[in-house]
Amino acid sequence: MPTLLITGANRGIGLELTKQYLEQGWDVHACCRKPKKAKELAKLKQENKKLSIHKLNVTKEKQMDKLKTVLKNKAIDMLINNAGVYASEASKFGQTDEKSWEEAVAVNLLAPMKMMEAFKENVAISDKKIIASMSSKMGSMDDNTSGGAYAYRATKAALNAVMVSAAHDLRHLDITCLILHPGWVRTDMGGPNGEISTQESAQKLRKILDECDISDTGKFYDIDGSIIPW
Q1: Is 230 among the domain residues?
Q2: How far apart, in Å, are the Cα atoms of 190 and each of 128, 162, 205?
Q3: What is the pLDDT of residues 56-79, one digit of tens each?
Q4: Structural domain count of the chain
């Protein structure tokens, strides 16, 4: 069966994608910072032996290197870079907080880049060969009609640029690189007023991922399957 490697899997969209891919019979390697506190993941593991839980703070290179060793020569059909931070302390003009900016860059931008570099060989030997990063419409210049959210917008826009470059650089390996907007989802980050549930978001994201091929590499997908302008 296919294999998924996903970051930020202990809650929200990451947790729901983990659940749904397990239901589809996939082997899932779910990563989170504190597995001992990830009660939902622990419960899932009790119910499904196809789930493996890994400790991974995506900003810690030693933890990433350890995971790379654990998964050496393991085919990974799909890598989903889902972990992210909003950096609310670096959202408003005139209130620039350097530490919040550094965290946003580390988690939202550098971590997906390093995950791709670490696991591209695993993806290349798989059948599906997909790398997807969770971005946001807020990373679109065209869609920015309200300002604010400086660090979040900037790091997601930069992530989009990284993914487009990776789409070119990994094409010779037949790896499809996708950029995904999950919708405005009712999560800790999205808040209680989000337009869709995590279940609906994950279902629609899976549809995009199921239907994509190498001709779609480098595209920036909205949750409804349409293309988001840069």
Answers
A1: no
A2: 30, 24, 16
A3: 999 999 999 999 999 999 999 999
A4: 1
